[in-house]
Each structure stands twice: as structure tokens, then as C-alpha cells.
Amino acid sequence: MLVSRRSSAALLLAIVSLTACKAKPAPTPVPVAPPVAVAPKFNKDSADAAEAKKLAAAAAAKAAADAAANAAAIAKAKATLGQIVYFDYDKDEIRDDQKATIEAKLPILEANPTMRIRVAGHTDNRGSDEYNLTLGQKRAAAVKRYLAARGIADARVETVSFGEERPAAQGENDDAWGKNRRAEFEILSGGDTMKAPK
Amino acid sequence: MTPSAPYPKRRRHSARAICAAGAGIRAAVFLAGSLLCSTQLTAQNDSTSGVRIGLTYTPGTRPGVFVAPVAGAWSDSVRAILGRDLDNGDRVTAILAQGGEPLSGALNYAAYAKLGANAVVQASVTPSGSLHVALHDVVAKNVSNVGDFPLPAQPLSAEWRLAVHGVADEVERWVTGTRGIAQSRVVFAREQGGGLWIVDSDGANARPMGVPTGLSPAWHPSGRYIAFCDMTNEGTKIALRDVVTGRTQRVSSRPGSNISPAFSPDGSTLAFSAGEDGMDIFAVNPFNGEPAHRVTISRGVQDALPSFSPDGRRIAFTSNRLGHPEVYIVDADGTNVELLTSTGFGDQLYRSNPDWSPDGRRVAFQSQINGVFQVMTINVRDHSVQALTSEGRNEDPSWAPDGRHIVFTSTRSGPKQLWVLDTETYRTRQLTRLGLARQGAWSPRLDNAK
Hints:
The structure holds 2 protein chains of 2 kinds.
Chain A (H helix, E strand, L loop, with lengths): L1 H17 L1 H4 L11 H47 L3 E2 L9 H8 L2 H6 L4 E7 L9 H18 L7 E7 L10 H7 L1 E8 L9
Parallel strand pairs in A: 2-3
Antiparallel strand pairs in A: 1-4, 2-4
Helix pairs in contact in A: 1-3
Chain B lengths: L15 H5 L17 H9 L17 E4 L7 H14 L4 E3 L13 H6 L4 E7 L5 E7 L4 E8 L8 H19 L8 E6 L4 E6 L6 E5 L2 E6 L5 E8 L2 E8 L5 E5 L4 E7 L6 E6 L4 E5 L8 E2 L8 E6 L5 E6 L6 E6 L6 E2 L11 E6 L5 E8 L2 E8 L5 E3 L6 E6 L5 E6 L6 E6 L5 E3 L6 E6 L8
Parallel strand pairs in B: 1-2, 1-3
Antiparallel strand pairs in B: 3-4, 4-5, 6-7, 6-29, 7-8, 9-10, 10-11, 11-12, 13-14, 14-15, 15-16, 17-18, 18-19, 19-20, 21-22, 22-23, 23-24, 25-26, 26-27, 27-28
Helix pairs in contact in B: 3-5
């Protein structure tokens, strides 16, 4: 909306400069130019102006709608990219039911060939806390390997591990453990100029 | 309880006869020319002539040491620290009477003998601030050892306490022939981003080190540096902190993870685990800027948590190369990998976190029993296993410099805390009371630490 208002204002300014004397709100009666006489002379311009204004407003509205749609698409893409992948206990293999979560990230990474991401592996707290750092690392690496097999260059994917140090859920039960055995995704670069996939 | 074996700890000469006649724990000072009885003369004849000062001591019998009220400033603190340190050492029985006046004049040795004391520690803080200590031998009825120990200017400060711990360690050496370990500290990592903390060996002065991102701390053998795993949003790196200056430098930031550092006994090599898809043990000299070299070739599995043998030639580590975590040993050059924790664990499939004992004979580690970790040791030669814990979850073992005590993490009292266990008597004590304490690493003796 802001955009359309701004462009209308610009157009009006242009008209005003063309019809400088008329535009001046002069209360002094001296050159009360007969509007009737002038009107036909400016008629076409005025019509054109109105038309231009209409077109501009429409274009602006469309642009705004497009921008909003694009912003929504990018937000959706970011959410898809950030979607967490979960793992089985003491395993780093990508579960079948988690593959779709990774697959959904592919069009986004393909639409943004310069984008770099970080995959962080996490574990539950049942193993050795220090050795769990290696398990988290293997999980992140498994995701990277999956992406590489689908054509995403290694250089675009950084892997790290937080082991059991940054749990998503607290508690000593299957539900909490299941939520903590995971890989998380973060955009390292290219997020500002991100394009939504077609 | 036969107070039979001779000075100082191992049976070196046939003195079994000498004190066998005496009931209870009997201390005997082997001072050439000042002998207790004729049977002892035999023993003395077996040993080298000259000065051998010490009380008889054998594992299993603990000489009683009476810590007398201390004279001078801060006397109560000195006495409490000395008594507690001697008690924590598990080599003597510390005897502290409530209250009382500092000793003066001649000692009534018979009275101390009745209390079960073989020795009496008589200490006084001198006007110049040093600690003057005399050790009385109750049986020989004389003063067997005397020492003057300078103390830092600020009483009750961390450095002042460290110095008093050093006095306790020396008294323990006078009595048993083996220096104590009270003058040491334990560095540890608190959970939930609590970072690195340090605590005195007696549990006093627990304090943060100013390393909120630190995990897995490891001491340099000099006590001057602490290597650790530095975890930030960018992942894990290996870093080295100078304890004196507080300066921290980056040691390794390889792609993927960089974890679990451990120094070689000579302090020239830092081993750690790093990698992206699979992790290897690497070794680097952190002081000369040379690049790290690979020790193990994991081929996609996870080799981590290195611990050097005391001669520096071998490294114990955790690997899942057979599908689940076990403890292995490899030569420091990467050859001759062998499985250490091979048998006797049934279907329990998780053993990790090795820490090689200072005497080289045993490796402490943690093993899952019914899904819960317990601390054990395994003999490096015959692979015999000694289970040390059973109550709660117990892990992260780290040997004290005496090769006898172990600090470990336990949930036996609720939230994770550090506990200390004597592997000879199984006596345990709680070291920290902060909560969320884990990954304790016992320092070397800090005799020369600032």
C-alpha cells in the first residue's frame, strides 16, 4: 500500500509541475483564469494522467501482492529448510519416515545455488556425554551425505555436533529422548537474497 | 590387622617379626642408632644403614595421626585443613579432638598411644606467617620430622589453602613414605552451558574459570594449562587456556567436530578427536604451531576420548569400530590397535571414557550395566575387571596423581555431582555440592603452581 501511495504522489507531483499556476491555490482574484477555457486544453493530459495513475496503482497493487506472496513463499521455504530430522536410538542412519523432510529441502537449495547451510547433530542423554558428540556429528554427516547424493555440493553444507548439550526437550522418557535425537538446520549465508523455489 | 610390614609401603626386608608381637597398630621409627627393641635390630640389619625415617605403614593398616590444636593465627582453619586432608588421603587415620589448647612442653606419648595415635602433628603459625610443623613419633617418643612451610600472605585465600594442603601432603609423606594429593584441584564442566569450574581437592573453593563455553577439560602435566573442548554456536573446537594468565588460544578447528583433548605425560603432545563423517584421534604439539597429525584411521567410525599411558607410548580410546563403543589401546604412532575391554561384559554393549592410571597398570572406564553407567577399572595386562560403583549413574572417571583415588560423576545423591573414591578401600566422599557437575579431571600435584 505504501508503495502505491508513493507512486501516485509522484505522478501528482508531475502533473502539478505541468500545471503550475493552476495548482497554486491562489485566493487572490487577479488572474482568475477562466477554467472553462483552459479545461479543454488540458483535458487529454488530465485523462492520460488519470489513466497513468490508475495503471500505476494497479501495477503497484500487483507488485505488492507479488511481494507478499514471495515473502510468504520465502518464509515457507525457510520453515521447510529448518524442519528437523529425527533419528533412532544410537543410530545415525536416515530413517525412511524422515527422508521426505530432507527431500523437501532440495528444491530450496537448488533454487539458491549460493546458499550455505549448517547441519547440527544432537543426541539424547543416555550415552557418554562426551562420546555422544561423535554420534551427533555422525548424524549431521549422514544428512550431508544424503544431500550430496541428491546433488547438493559438499562445500555448501557445514556439519557440527552439540551431542546432548542442547536438548530440545527435558525429561528422562521416550518422548523427550525421541525429540532430542535430531539434526537441525541453519542458513549460514544466502538467506538475505533467498529465492523461493518455482 | 597385623601391623607387620615394614617401612615404607612395600615389603622390602623381613621385618614381619618385629612388630608382630605388638597388638594394634604400632609405629616404629627406623632411625639408625635409635631402635626400639632387639627384634627390630634384625630388621634394621636387613635394610641399608643410614637414615631411614618413617613410620611403619602397610596398605590395609592405617597409622593413627593425631592433629593437635594449632598455635597462632588462623589456627583452627589450619588444623581443620590438615586433619581433613590426612583423612581424605585414606592412608592414615586422622584423629582430631574437639577444641583443646596447643601443645606445650613435653608430650605425654602414652596418652596419645591410648588414643590410637602413632604420630602427633604439632603445628604453629609463626608471626612471619609460615607454618612450623613437628611430627612426633608416639612409639619412639621423639620428634621424627620438622618442617617450616611459608604460607602466602592472604590467609584463607585459594593460594593460602593450597599451601596448607601442601603441608598436609608432606606430613603424609613423613608418616607413610608417600606424598599426599591434597595439594591438587579438579577442573570440571557444569551441564546446561555452565562452563568450566575448578575446585580444591577437599571440595572447597568451587569457582567458575571464566570459560562458559568449555567442556571436557584436561590438565597439562605442569598444572599450568587446561585444554578443553570449546562449544559455541559454530560447533566444537579444541582450545588451550593458560591458568596463570587466563589467556586462551585455539588449538584445533578442523571441519566437523573437535572434541575430548588429553595431554601426553611429557606435556608436549595434545591428543584429541576430530572429524566430520567419522572421527579420528589426532595429535598435535599445541605450543609450536605445527599442524596436527592423524593417529588412528577410523574409516568412518568414531574414535574419541584418548588417554595416554604414563610412559606416553600408548593411547587408550573409545571406538565403535565393532558396532558399539568399546575401549581400545593403540601405540602412539597409530599402530597395534587392540581391544582392551574384550570379555566378561555379557550383552552389555557400551564401554567408554578410559583414563589410564598413573602407575600404568589399570585403565578406569565406564560400562553400562542394565543401561546405567558404572565406573570400573581393567588391568592392562590380564584384563581383570574391578567394578567400583553400583549406586546411581556413575561415569567420567579421572585418576588422582596418587594412582589410587578416582574422581567421577555420580547421580547417587540426585543431580550429577563429583565424587571421590579410594580404589583400595572403596571409601567415597562427595566433592562438589553445586549440581550439574560432571567431567571432572584431577590435576597433577600442584607443588609449583602459581
